[in-house]
Amino acid sequence: MIVLKVNNEIFYDDALVLVKMFYPRHEVLMYGKENKSGEEEEFTIEPWIPETEGKEKKQYHEEFKSRLYEDLVKKTGQNLPWGYLTGVRPSKIAYQMLDEGAEDSEILDEFVKKHKASTDKANLALNVAKHERKLLTAKDYSSGYSLYIGIPFCPTTCLYCSFTSYSILGYKNQVDDYLTALIKEMRATYEIMKGQRLDTIYFGGGTPTTLESAQLDRLLTALEETFARDGLEGIELTVEAGRPDSITREKLEVLRKHQVQRISINPQTMNQKTLDLIGRHHTVEQIKESFYTARELGFENINMDIILGLPDEGFKEVTKTLDDIRQMAPESLTMHSLAIKRAAGLNIWRDRFKNLSLENDDATVKLCEKTAADLGLEPYYMYRQKNMTGNFENVGYAKPGFECMYNILIMEEIQTIVALGAGAATKRVWNNGRIERATNVKDVKMYLAETDEMIRRKQELFQM
Ligand code: SF4
User: Fold this and answer.
1) Whose CA is nearest to atom 7 of ligand 1?
2) How wide is the angle at C-alpha 11 spanned by C-alphas 27 and 19, nearest 5°?
3) Can you give the pLDDT at residue 103?
4) DSSP β-ladder status, 236-242 and 197-205
5) Bridge partners, 154 (sequence order)
């Protein structure tokens, strides 16, 4: 237990996030609050920022974070890769500076000198921003929109999962009704967005390939009939196949038939022991089989997701994962650093897993970067989450020309994304940067009962 004493409550959130980055497994208590945890108090951190008249709020927060960061570095002897940057999108800083005409050296200084980030991370943010800028300026994306379709079912629940995901076994009898509701929402969305250009479509979840092949066919046929009556030419179409235990040749054939260009087949790790531990009930062989079947059927743009910092995995295990991925040679690789969210089993049952290591380090991240580079993949989008092991980042790498625009658009918030299905959140983005949201209920039964209300929320959002 760490007790935090700050001189102004406006700094509580800053302090909490930063202290958690140094002490991910500790409880942090604000000074003056009652300690109900039963844990002993280890020490008190007490950064103090003098109040200065006329100082801008942002500057005041920066100064506080910088001071607290220095205190924590002294106390722990540890530096963080991103310094005291706590934001979700560090590349946005580089992007904005590029827009304002800043030189590379000024941008790198902003990260290294001001925010105390490492030179490697400063270069990563700059490279990602340049890559994004090149892609985003090729077309006026702000005048189009994207469509997200959520299938909230998975074969089993992964230990680290915090998404809207229900076991397909328990919901088998409701999947057809779910598709009926989804198609209704899809058709209403077409009417709402009529006349606007659709740029990308992304099927996520959950795991869309938990649907049976006939169900997938029904959904994709409805999509074509509604949004792409003249075919999907010019529209990026991605399906997150995700879990190899949900993929079959027949389902992949359905995806091919409907012109799905990009799929994800996500190993997360190529170590069987870890797959078993994290609740992914499939084998390493199944991952390879799914990948090579997809290749055989003609998929030329396959992404693979991996997670660094999985329970009891270190450099050796990640080396094995990356060696296998090197052999398969996907067009994109998405590297995640494990983030333990409150709703994840790994957090809920943390006592059960307290003896497992959850580590990620610079050497492992560098190995991943090297593998991506050896495969000819370049970093093109990135984001950070709270409570990430090692305080690293998630990075999407892709072969030039194989990037997923949807991933950039959702990250950079420059385009409206209309989201359908249980738990999906629509984000309307105006040209002046204003953003308004309409969220769907998460519970499948409620979604079925309230589909009209989900549609009404969208109508209201787009009537503004
Ligand atoms: S595959 Fe993804 S959405 Fe499904 S349980 Fe695992 S982490 Fe959650």
Assistant:
1) 161
2) 30
3) 98
4) parallel
5) 167
Name which of 266, 267, 254, 252 is nearest 223 in CA terms: 254
d(CA 461, ligand 1 centre) in Å: 29
What contacts 275, CB < 8 A, 6 or more positions away?
268, 269, 282, 283, 284
Q: Rounded CA gap, 158 and 165, in Å? A: 10
- One-letter identity of residue 456: R
For the chain, helix (H) and strand (E) counts, in that order, are: 17, 16
Q: What percent of the chain has pLDDT over 70?
A: 95
Task: Annotate 373-406 with b (16+ C-beta within 10 A) or e (fewer).
Answer: eebebbbbbbbbeebbbbbbbbbbbbbeebbbbb
Query: Does the pLDDT at position 115 exceed 90?
Result: yes
pLDDT at position 349 = 73
Structure-token pair, residue 151: 């299938």
Burial 18-28 (b: 16+ CB within 10 A, else e): bbbbbbeeebb
Distance between first and last Cα of the chain: 47
Going through 8-119 in order, the beta strands assigned E by DSSP cover: 28-30, 43-45
290: number of Cβ within 10 Å:
27
pLDDT-wise least confident of 38-42, 129-133, 225-229, 404-408: 38-42
Q: Which residues have C-beta atoms less than 6 Å from ligand 1?
A: 154, 157-158, 161, 163, 165, 205-207, 242-243
Instruction: Encode pLDDT of 38-60 as tens digits.
Output: 666 666 777 666 666 667 778 88
Mean pLDDT to the nearest integer, 356-370: 90
Dist. CA 316 → ligand 1 center (Å): 25
pLDDT tens per residue across span 291-304: 999 999 999 999 99
Which structure tokens are listed for 392? 């690293």
What's the DSSP call for residue 40?
P
Among 128-132, 165-169, 332-336, where is mean pLDDT lowest? 165-169
Q: Specify the long-range contacts of residues 288-293, CB closer than 8 Å, at least 24 apart.
A: 288/324, 288/328, 289/244, 290/241, 290/244, 290/247, 290/252, 290/265, 291/265, 291/328, 291/330, 292/328, 293/247, 293/249, 293/252
Instruction: Give the pLDDT confidence score for residue 50 in this predicted structure.
Output: 67
Q: How far is the CA of 248 from the centre of ligand 1 (A)?
A: 18
- Nearest protein CA to atom 6 of ligand 1, as residue: 158
